[in-house]
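Tutorial, part two.
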Amino acid sequence: MNVLIRSAKIIDTNSAFHQKVRDILIENGKISQIGTSIKNPKDHKEIKIKNLHVSPGWFDSSVSFGEPGFEERETIANGLKTAAKSGFTAVALNPNTNPVIDSKSGVEFMINEGRDNAVNLYPIANLTQKAQGTDLAELYDMKHSGAIAFGDYNRPISNANLLKMGLLYAQNFNGLVLSFPQDASLTNHAALNEGIISTKIGLKGNPALAEEIQVARDIFLLEYTGGKLHIPTISTAGSVKLIAEAKKKGLDVSCSASAHHLFLTDDELADFNTNCKVIPPLRSKADVNALVKALNTGIIDMITSDHNPLDVELKKVELENATDGTIGLES
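Running the prediction step on this input gives:
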């Protein structure tokens, strides 16, 4: 590929050109020159677009493509094409499939399906067998087959001893454990955040406590066991505070927030918009502000799309009956 990009704002904190507008010459697929008013050496194709930005490829730490088992939602091949068009060069693929990814063969399937694409695919394997939260899956074998982390996506690990054992065992091969931040006994099977909006529309609410008590428990376990823990898609100011304190203690804990939790609030559900029914639920403006501040100060380690396409039939129902999830790679 040979192309000359004109007047692009470069976004790369590791580059001397960060936040500067420059021309970028690409020859044979590699950047050969960055500067101002670069001469086109061989009539290469030129790209000049208003408000153009260029950055290193993005990594999305939480995407769901449906395959295997739910190919009608999205296949791996189609999902990777969408990711490439959106500027991603790598994605971590969740194991919310059928069958789930709780074995060496499942991980190998994911990797094989992701080969020869512009976007690198990194499988997240299930922490527990069949994602049922009762017994650990074959973590060691899956790690050596290419799994980058272990978690049951949006199924909380309610058994504290099981998570403890997972954190201990994963240390044998430097494994990363994911724990979804929801205490299922406190969520009320609610359709939205517990607050003014849930009261106004007369539906049960999912309290911030349901997330924060799980985050606190998981941090206590990590402090006891050691190891590496990632808490995906946090949504409350209380979770931010707990994780900040854990990092100050030197615990190896990381976290993410979804893009929609950084921009949208539970006001979006005042008109029963099922497309905005996600888990964790969209929270209050105060929570959004706390997340944005935590991102800017490094408490939140990454933003994710939490891309999770669903069948139309799962969304065109009453709010309380709609399935949690929304698309995000193209937003």
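Residues 4 and 46 are 5 Å apart (CA to CA). In part three we will examine how such features are distributed along the chain.
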